[in-house]
Amino acid sequence: MSLEKLIQAVLTAPPAVRNQLEAVLSGRDGSDKNGKKDTRLVTISGAARMLDLGRNCIYALIESGRLDTVDINGARRITMRSLNEFIDGQRPANEKTEAIIAANKARYARARKRGGAE
To answer: Which residue range forms the structural domain that includes residue 70?
Structure first.
C-alpha cells in the first residue's frame, strides 16, 4: 500500500478507528505504567449492563470513538480500559442531582405500592 493510499484510508476511517490509531501512535494503547496491557474485554450487552445503558447507546459511544473495540472473528468486544476511561471522564453528579434522583426513586416506589403511576 502506498503512503498516499494509507493516508487516505486513515482520513476516511470511522472516528473509532482513527482514535485507536492515534492511541497506538501516541503510546496510549492501553499499556499501564509497567508496560502491561489490559486485555480484558466485554460484550456490547455486558458493557450496557455495566453502564446501565441500552445497547443502542453503547453502539453510539463506539461510533463516536468514546469506547474502543476489538474484533475477534467477527465478534465485537469493548476493552475494559476504554470503559474505565469513559467512566473516569464523566462529570460526577452534584448534590442537587443526587437529591432529584432520590426523590424520583421514592416517588416511583410510592406509585408502585399504590399500583399506579405518578
So the answer is: 3-93
pTM: 0.47
Other Cβ atoms closer than 10 A to 68: 22
| Residue owning grid cell 471522564 | 89
Here the cell at position 67 is 469506547
Q: Where are the alpha helices (DSSP H) in 12-116?
A: 15-26, 44-51, 55-63, 80-88, 95-114
CA distance 52 to 98: 16
d(CA 66, CA 8) in angstroms, rounded, equals 23
Cell 469493548, located at residue: 78
Of residues 12, 81, 75, the one with CA closest to residue 40: 81
How does pLDDT run across 94-114, given as a tens digit for each residue? Answer: 677 677 777 878 887 888 787
Q: 27 lies in a domain?
A: yes
C-alpha cell at 86: 469513559
Q: How many domains does the chain have?
A: 1
